[in-house]
Amino acid sequence: MAKIVSLTPIFLMGISLYVLLHPYSDQLNTILSGRLVLYQEYYQTYGIHFLRTEALENAMFDSGYLQSLLSKGIFFSTQLMLILTWMGWHVKRMSWKSAILLLSYFALGFTETALQHFELFFPLIIILANDNKRFKDRENKMKITKNN
User: Fold this and answer.
1) Among the residues of 7-117, which ranges form H helices?
2) What is the pTM of this model?
3) What is the model's pLDDT at position 148?
4) How far apart are CA 131 and CA 122, in angstroms?
5) CA 133 to CA 73: how far, in whole Å?
6) Which sign does the torsion angle of CA 27, 57, 85, 101 carry?
7) pLDDT tens across 70-96, in order?
8) What is the pLDDT of residues 93-125, one digit of tens each?
C-alpha cells in the first residue's frame, strides 16, 4: 500500500501537465472558474524554466503541482516529487490512517498550493516515522519470540 500511495504525486503531476498542455473544453473550464485558461496563459507567456520564474512567484495558482513547475521551475519540481515519493516509499508499512492522511495531502496539493507549505510536511513526517518505528518494534518482537 505504501508504494502505491507514494506514487500518487507523480500521477497527479502527470494529470496537471496533461491539463496544462492539452486543449480543454469550455464546459470544464467554466466548472473550474476559468483556471484552465489561466494556467495555459501562464504557460504560453512564461513557459517552463529550469529555475524559478520570478514573475509567477505571486501568481494565482490553485494547483501546487503546476505552481511548483511553472513558478519554481523544473529543478524544484523534480526535487519536490522525489521527496514526496520518497516519504511514502521509505515507510515499510503504513497504517490506513497514515495512508489516508498522505493521500489527502497529495490531493490537497492538486487543488491548493499546500505542497510548498513545509509546515504541513513536518507533522506528516512525524506520523510516517512513528508508523515506521511501530513496524520495526513489531518486527523485533516477532524475532525475539521466534528465538525463544
Assistant:
1) 8-21, 26-31, 35-46, 64-67, 74-89, 96-111
2) 0.80
3) 63
4) 14
5) 35
6) negative
7) 999 999 999 999 988 887 777 667 778
8) 777 888 888 888 889 888 888 777 778 878 888
